Amino acid sequence: MFTKTVLSATALLARVATAGSAPGFPIDVTQNLTVTYGNNTVSPGGERIPRPETAAAPTVSSPVWFSDERGPGQCVLLMVDLDVPRNNSRVQLVHWIATNVTRSVPISANTTGSALDIPSDNPVPYLQPSPPVGDSPHSYTFILMQQPRNFSIPSMYADLADNRVGFNVSQFAADANLTTALAATWITVQNLTDVPSNTSFPPPRPSPTGDGEGSSGPASGDASGAMIGGRTLWTAISTAVVAVGFAIAL
């Protein structure tokens, strides 16, 4: 059985095999956020997190930040489910929008492991992942975006906290003038809290490789975690070995 420790040892490869955001997420990001639920730090991106561990909002840290002529900036943090079943298709649901996110230490410091300061008063409060019982795992992307000065949520999204289903993260980013994504990561969650009463769900979103596994991800402490970005762990390890060989040769 492959453990989370083994998967973490291939974190570099996981970052090469997948971007920071989930497969199919419309905003590409290469830098990886660090998201921690309790004692579980998500690694690699797409790790399967047991739903009970997601009851409270995670801590988040970022390896990158930004500043302008007025000093260090603030960010908007979003969490988006890509896989909500609606009308025989999959739509987005926004689980969290936090604005005015700041760094807990100066921008000049090495703060990869320092949690961000996320205000408790969020325009869209954190909502625990709760896929329908019996559905395939859902993908949840956390994405950190530069926040413009004097930022406010556009008025057309005033009731977003009460109307989360059918969210369009690309349109929201355009409407809110969120033009630069800094870092992202993603998790998968499956609801195993009860016996399924419904087994008729839309098919999973197609993955970039067209294998119909867009909503699956590596599970923590599970043999199914041997899948990373649609490739087997052994393929990933082979690639990593080749990469190390080239590095040594150089």
Number of domains: 1
Strand/helix succession = HHEEEEEEEEEEHEEEH
Radius of gyration: 18 Å
Helix content: 10-25%
Name of the CATH homologous superfamily: PEBP-like
Q: Helix/strand/pairing class, anyone?
A: alpha+beta
Largest sheet: 6 strands, mixed
Extended strand count: 13
Major β-sheet strand ordering: 3-11-9-7-8-10
- Which CATH top level class fits? Alpha Beta
CATH topology: Phosphatidylethanolamine-binding Protein
Oligomer: single chain
Principal-axis shape equals: globular
Overall average pLDDT: 79
Figure out the total of helices.
Answer: 4
DSSP strand content: 25-35%
Structure write-up:
By secondary structure, the protein is an alpha+beta fold. The protein has a single domain (4-249), classed as PEBP-like (Phosphatidylethanolamine-binding Protein). Helices cover 15% and strands 27% of the residues. Strands 3-11-9-7-8-10 form a six-stranded mixed beta sheet, with no helix packed on it. The two termini are 34 Å apart.
Helix-strand layout with pairing:
Elements: H1 4-9, H2 11-17, E1 34-37, E2 40-41, E3 47-48, E4 59-61, E5 67-68, E6 71-72, E7 74-86, E8 89-101, E9 138-147, E10 165-167, H3 169-175, E11 181-189, E12 227-228, E13 231-232, H4 233-249
Parallel strand pairs: 3-11
Antiparallel strand pairs: 1-2, 1-4, 5-6, 7-8, 7-9, 8-10, 9-11, 12-13
Helix pairs in contact: 2-4
